[in-house]
From TrEMBL:
Any single Pfam family the record assigns to this protein: VMA21
A single GO cellular-component term on record: cytoplasmic vesicle
Organism: Hermanssonia centrifuga
This protein's record includes keyword S-adenosyl-L-methionine: no
Superkingdom of origin: Eukaryota
UniProt feature coiled coil, ranges: none
Keywords: Cytoplasmic vesicle, Endoplasmic reticulum, Membrane, Transmembrane, Transmembrane helix
Alphabetical list of InterPro entries matching this protein: Vma21
Keyword Iron: no
The name this protein goes by in its record: Vacuolar ATPase assembly integral membrane protein VMA21
Record field: transmembrane: 18-39, 51-73
GO biological process, one term: vacuolar proton-transporting V-type ATPase complex assembly
């Protein structure tokens, strides 16, 4: 019974950076477009709401592309780590 809590603790510690990235990018996706909209409308585009909306859409897309890139990089690291520990497949092990 003592193996289950230690396994759970190891999994939690392993997934903590993933959860942190997800929360950080969630907050960025929630607040970046809104703040960019109002800041660009007041200071960059002098009240033009169309250009401010376009700027907010670009900010949201930047956050989404950042999330995709980080996810792909993390997946590549995980596959490299698992390939290094796996045995090569032979006809007998199939």
């Amino acid at each position: 019974m003592s193996a289950a809590p230690s396994t759970l603790t190891a999994q939690t510690a392993e997934q903590a950076p993933v959860l942190f990235k997800l929360l950080l990018l969630t907050f960025a996706l929630a607040f970046a477009p809104i703040s960019v909209y109002y800041l660009s409308q007041n200071y960059l585009w002098n009240g033009n709401s169309t250009y401010a909306a376009i700027t907010a859409v670009v900010a949201a897309n930047i956050v989404l592309v950042t999330y995709i890139i980080l996810s792909v990089m993390e997946e590549n690291q995980l596959t490299k780590a698992s390939k290094g520990t796996a045995e090569p497949e032979t006809k007998k092990t199939r």
